[in-house]
Amino acid sequence: MAHDASSTLVTTATSETRLSRGILTAVALGFVLLFLLLPLATVFIEAFRKGPAEFFAALRDPETFSAIRLTLLVAGIAVPLNLVFGVAAAWAIAKFEFKGKAFLTTLIDLPFSVSPVISGLVFVLLFSSQSMLGPLLQSYDIQILFAVPGLVLATVFVTFPFVARELIPLMQEQGTADEEAALSLGATGWQTFWHVTLPNIKWGLLYGVLLCNARAMGEFGAVSVVSGHIRGQTNTMPLQVEILYNEYNFVAAFAVAALLALLALVTLVLKTALELRYSDEIAASRRH
Amino acid sequence: MIAMAARTSTRWRFRQPSVIPGFGLALGVTLAWLTIIVLVPLSGLLWRSSSLGWSKFAELALDERTVNALTISFGTAFIAAVVNLVFGVLLAWVLVRYRFPGKRVIDAMVDLPFALPTAVAGIALTTLYAPNGWIGSLLAPLGIKVAFTPAGIVVALIFVGLPFVVRTVQPIMEEIDKEVEEAAATLGATRFQTISRVLLPGLLPAGLTGFALAFARGVGEYGSVIFIAGNLPYVSEIAPLLIVIRLEEFNYPAATAIAGVMLLLSFLMLLVINVIQAWSRRRYGYGA
Known about the structure:
Chain A: InterPro entries: CysW_permease (IPR011866), MetI-like (IPR000515), MetI-like_sf (IPR035906), Sulph_transpt2 (IPR005667). Chain A: Keywords: Cell inner membrane, Cell membrane, Membrane, Sulfate transport, Transmembrane, Transmembrane helix, Transport. Chain A: Residues 68-271 form the ABC transmembrane type-1 domain. Chain A: It is found in: Cell inner membrane. The complex is a heterodimer of chains A (288) and B (288). Chain A is an all-alpha fold. Chain A contains 13 helices and no strands. Chain A folds into two domains: 1-47, no CATH class; 52-281, Orthogonal Bundle (MetI-like fold), CATH 1.10.3720. Chain A has helices at 18-47, 51-59, 62-95, 101-109, 116-127, 133-139, 148-159, 162-174, 177-184, 189-218, 221-227, 237-246, 250-277. The longest helix of chain A has 34 residues, at 62-95. Chain A is globular, with a radius of gyration of 23 Å. In chain B, α2 crosses α14 and α9 packs across α11 (191-220). Chain B starts with a helix and ends in a 5-residue tail after the last helix. Helices cover 76% and strands 0% of the residues of chain B. Chain B contains 14 helices and no strands. Chains A and B meet through α1, α3, α4, α5 and α7 of A and α2, α4, α5, α6 and α7 of B.
């Protein structure tokens, strides 16, 4: 921060009066309270409204349990896939100069600018029985929509850019000198990657994976479109929240929601810790 | 790899020569994954839209319910983005310039909407703003209804869009050179004049970027909105929800048409904002 600490304590020509500082701070914090803190508190208060016994009973419901398992499964497939892709994309884009690089970077960001519902819709159009692929897959008895593969595809689509986006600026900043040194000392390509590049980018990679995972486990719109909402089979945790809520089973809905909120809080804590501790080893900008 | 580099080094180069290995593999993986996950599904949507034929597409897109849903989506997203621009800049200012207890926590909490699943945010906001909720019951005697009206949609979109503005403006604010403010003060500007005539115009490009991101996210948002909106056709039904409804009716052409119009409008909007941004960066921006 460029300004000196004393400027916030006394009124100078380049700071606001005490009164206006107080008012501005109060308005900003009031906004945060109203739109961020109260909704978060509501989740936990509603989940424990009828006591911890009800809360834990709601989580032991078999359908909820299978939703938790499905969410872990889908994220467990989607996140590693995008991890490999993200590293490959960052390697190609950050370590080399080639034609069409800017265009490729734009294409990678594309899923962020598409509505989650449209992200799901594209896969429905691709694999429905009215499409070209659908009947073909059906004849081989391969089920994509309303099954795990569809959920994974939609999740991979919406979380596609996270890891690549975090790694590209970081690896561009680090340049190629370390790798060139390793190669000139006789390391093979893979040795260079495992022993030189990976240690350099590990915190940035973790940061990207963290955000990717949070979105993968929390995705609602895209997954909702391809899931078919088969109870106990194709409902992920966010979809289970919706079903329970629409059945006016509020304690159970908020119990599942509380688990997801807990995941969000853990993500935020780890993310903040990474930003504070390893700010030099994750991408310079904090933009998403 | 080396052989390939040697071959491509004659005249026109696809890529600059480099001793770093793995370009072919990394780019290959990137392009393959990008094609399978993003390009094929999205071009499937475009192909489906175009195969409807112009008159059929126009008929579906200009359907009264569709036009209403699109108006609601873009209108509420615009209002929410304006609110977020004002309060996001204020919040970034307070976080960058002032000191108060719990600042670190508040700073970290700004990212909550990125981490919290949208369905969780949706049911929490609905509970808070419903007529019998904490905030809703305070507003009800004043005759203000938020939940189950378009105002509820705006509230949900303020929640999801807030971090975009704060996180794009905050890093630029941290880099503001104090000398600019000192110069303004020595030339006789009041503090208010310095802020409104010197500092804020310089933040315009970053503010517009944040506004655009929040707006784009708001237009496509689904999970947090559907709980609080009430989803009354022609009144509080958003476009992504109408896509889902058409899909559930197996009316794929209509779903495709709405998605096509949404993509087209979002694209046009980003184009306009890019032009405004380029202009404001030339006119005011810091650093660039």
